[in-house]
TrEMBL record:
Heterotrimer of A, B and C subunits. The gene is gatA. Belongs to the amidase family. GatA subfamily. The keyword Nucleotide-binding applies. SUPFAM superfamilies: Amidase signature (AS) enzymes (SSF75304). It comes from Fervidicella metallireducens AeB. GO terms for cellular component: glutamyl-tRNA(Gln) amidotransferase complex. Residues 5-447 form the Amidase domain. It catalyses: L-glutamyl-tRNA(Gln) + L-glutamine + ATP + H2O = L-glutaminyl-tRNA(Gln) + L-glutamate + ADP + phosphate + H(+). Its EC number is 6.3.5.7. This is Glutamyl-tRNA(Gln) amidotransferase subunit A.
């Protein structure tokens, strides 16, 4: 088959099902077909092509691609035309990737169900009455429903791993600094990372080979050498030490989820891994720390949306202050406003020491706790999410309940270590993922365990 044929098939599938599924906010058919034609030309000329050449994929709508619209699923950015390519996009293009469109998400990546999108709901392909998870719900649904072969998401507190778990996919969050954030619209700059959604671990390793590496355009990008991740896929994990934190398998885990996870752990044992019980006592503070830090950083990052420089501007106003107030009132949705208010409060004089500074201190201790744990074990295992896909509206009335969806994923972003969700089984017909957490820049080790397990 030719790249053009594969791309046409992908576009056809999107045409047929996306009205119902709602994974995409925009389609770039012309650009995709043009990229595919380029690949076919090179193929006919006898060139050897990179692994990703000619394969249709989707980007979360918070990543810039030159000449296309990036909205972050917010009215605030409706119609925003990216003047440049994000580094990940540049890398994908250099490898012949065919980008077919931009995927729906929670507004500015704030949420765990994609329900805060200003534009549409994305359905879970396993059950159209349920959420795909979030915030990268469109990216997950597009791969799970076979519209594209892989996609990119961003993960600030779980937004790749949790939707991967709910949609039966592999979702990978690299070490902070491993993949460039240049061209990713910032949510919480000290936590955000880009990573792939794929159907299996091998595809994940291949996409990571393209994404990872130092980028001078991102000052937090790490100068750490990138190995060939496919070399780790040996299936041999005998003698590997896998830590089971007792806090992650304790009372909060529903019985059916625990059963599914324990079966997965038996698989790891049968593969010759050594399961060790460990303790991460600071885990109970992770959600509090995350929601203070993420909201604080978000309130600062989103200050740039003032109705003047770019983005939505209110139609009627009296003076400059009125432009700010009306544009932000009309342009942002409720969840975004909630985060801005929480963050502004935590950062304000008089509260800074009590909230923001304290959260930073606890963050340092959480980092140390992970560093200590990785002296004892090679990887850590946990559920990805406390639940399988839930119904639309089930958690929207109570934001705190929605925040609880992230209980197992946020500590990983706080520490900055890599994490991956791998399909572990089904609970009443709905997929559930197992999370592996690795040491800094040990993406290869994570992929090795995930590959042996899947
Ligand atoms: N659900 C979390 C939040 O709402 C994580 C989001 C994310 O990782 N982008 O902040």
């Amino acid at each position: 088959v030719t790249a053009v044929e594969v791309t046409e098939n992908s576009l056809k599938r999107i045409n047929e099902i996306d009205d119902k599924l709602g994974a995409f906010v925009s389609i770039e058919a012309d650009k995709a077909l043009e990229a595919a034609r380029e690949v076919d030309k090179k193929l006919q000329a006898g060139e050897t092509l990179p692994d990703l050449a000619g394969i249709p994929m989707a980007l979360k709508d918070n990543m810039c691609m030159k000449g296309t619209i990036s909205t972050c699923s917010s009215r605030m950015m409706e119609g925003f035309l990216s003047p440049y390519d994000a580094t990940v996009v540049e890398r994908l293009k250099a490898n012949g990737a065919v980008i077919v469109g931009k995927a729906n998400m929670d507004e500015f990546a704030m949420g765990s169900s994609t329900e805060t999108s200003a534009f549409k709901l994305t359905k879970n392909p396993y059950d159209l009455e349920r959420v795909p998870g979030g915030s990268s719900g469109g990216s997950a649904a597009s791969v799970a429903a076979g519209e594209v072969y892989y996609s990119l998401g961003s993960d600030t507190g779980g937004s790749i791993r949790q939707p991967a778990s709910l949609c039966g996919l592999v979702g990978f969050k690299p070490t902070y600094g491993r993949v460039s954030r240049y061209g990713l619209v910032a949510f919480a700059s000290s936590l955000d990372q880009i990573g792939p959604f794929t159907k299996d671990v091998e595809d994940c390793a291949i996409v990571m080979n393209t994404l990872a590496g130092h980028d001078p355009m991102d000052s937090t990008s790490a100068k750490v050498e990138v190995p060939d991740y496919t070399k780790f896929l040996t299936k041999d994990i005998r003698g590997m030490r896998i830590g089971m934190p007792k806090e992650y398998f304790g009372e909060g885990v529903p019985e059916d989820m625990r059963k599914c996870m324990m079966e997965a752990i038996d698989v790891l044992k049968s593969l010759g891994a050594e399961i060790k019980e460990i303790s991460l006592p600071l885990s109970e503070y992770a959600l509090a720390v995350y929601y203070i830090l993420a909201s604080s950083e978000a309130s600062s990052n989103l200050a740039r949306f003032d109705g003047i420089r770019y983005g939505y501007r209110a139609k009627e106003f009296t003076d400059a202050i009125d432009i700010y107030v009306k544009s932000r009132t009309e342009g942002f949705g409720d969840e975004v406003k909630r985060r801005i208010m929480l963050g502004t409060y935590a950062l304000s004089a008089g509260y800074y020491d009590a909230y923001y500074k304290k959260a930073l201190r606890v963050r340092t201790r959480i980092i140390n706790e992970y560093k200590e744990a990785f002296k004892e074990v090679d990887v850590i295992v946990s559920p990805t999410s406390p639940s399988v896909a839930f119904k639309f509206g089930e958690k929207t009335a109570n934001p705190l309940e929605m925040y609880l969806s992230d209980i197992y994923t946020v500590p990983v972003n706080i520490a900055g270590v890599p994490g991956v969700s791998v399909p572990a089984g089904f609970i009443k017909g709905l997929p559930a993922g197992l999370q592996f957490i690795g040491n800094y820049f040990e993406e290869g080790t994570l992929l090795k365990v995930a590959h042996a397990f899947e």
